[in-house]
Amino acid sequence: MTFDRSARISALARARNLGVRPPRQDELVVRVRAAGVCLANELDRGAVSAGTPRFVVPAWMRSGVAGVGEAVSDGVAGFAAGDEVFGVTTPRLIRPGAAVAIVAASRVARKPRRIDFAVAAAIPAVAATAWQMLFALGRVERGDTVLILGGTHPVGVLALQLARAHGLRCVAVSAPRHGAALRALGADRVIDAGPSALEAASANAGVIVDTAGGMLQRRALAAMRPGSALVSCVSRPDPSHALREHVRCEYCATDVTALRLQEIAKLIDLRLITPTIDALFGTSTTASRVRAAATQPADAAVALAA
Fold first, then answer.
1. Nearest-angstrom CA–CA distance, 141 and 102
2. Residues 280 and 225 in one domain
3. Residue 163: how many CA atoms within 13 Å on its side-chain side?
4. Burial of 10: CB neighbours in 10 Å, binned 0-12, 13-18, 19+
5. 112 and 146 in one domain?
6. pLDDT (tens digit, 9 = 90+) per residue, 219-262?
7. Same domain flag for 102 and 150
8. Torsional sign, CA 96, 101, 102, 107
9. Range of the domain at 49
10. pLDDT band of 39, cuts 50, 70, 90
C-alpha cells in the first residue's frame, strides 16, 4: 500500500473543517444529501413512536445514506473526494443532524447515475437484503420459480425486479389492487393469499422469498416440495420443519457490502431494475407524519432529504 502524505493531510484538513474526526484507513467522510429507511422494518422494531417529536437521526441512518465524498483516507482505493456514493453507516459514525457521516468503504459504492440521492439513500439495505435472499441464501438457478410472500414490501419489490433481471419466473403474493403494478415490475403472476392459491404456488416454487412471516410463512412451509428453499427476512422459520420435510429454511440477517451495492448499481444504470421511494420528507418532519405513511396499503421505503 502506498502512503500518500499529501492525500492524508488533505483528508485530515477536510475532516477538521467538517467538524468530524479524520477517517480511518478504511473509511470515507460523506456530506449527507439524503438518509433512507425501510419504514416497515423500523416500525417492527418500534423505532418510531407517536410520542417522538423529531427524528433521532442516527437511528434512521442504519438503513441508508447517500451523499458526496468529502474526505477519503489513504487506505481506501476506488474513491476520491467529490464522488457521489451510497451505502450504509451506523449511529456511532454519524454526527447529530445528519450533515456528515463517516462510512466504511466496505459498505458503500458509487451511486448509480440514473437515480437521485433520495432514492439512492432509501435502497442499500433493502436491495442488499433482496440480493442475499435470492442468490446468497436462496441459491436460485436459472429456470427456478420464485414465490414472493409480501410482494409490495420494499424487499419484495426489489427481489421481484432482481429475479426478472436474472431470467427467473416470479409469482408475487399480494392484494389484488397491487396486481397491475407488480406485473409491470416483472411478476409473471400475482395471487392473493386464498386457501388454495398460496399452497399451490408454494408447491411449485424452487425458492420462496418471505417478507411477510406469520401465518403466510407457516402455510408456505407446509406446502413446500422437497428440495426447495424458504428464506425469510422477518422471522426465523421452524428448523424442525426443514428436517421433517426435506426442505431448506434460512433466515436473512442483512449484510450490506460494497460488492453487492456495485452489482445493484450496474443493474439500475442498465435499467434492469428501477427502485422507487414511497415518501420523501425533510429531516425536521415529525414522526407522526412518517407513521401515517406506513399505514398506506404499500409498505414504505422512505428517504429523508437534507
1. 37
2. no
3. 35
4. middle
5. no
6. 999 999 999 999 999 888 887 776 667 889 999 988 999 999 99
7. no
8. positive
9. 5-123+275-305
10. low
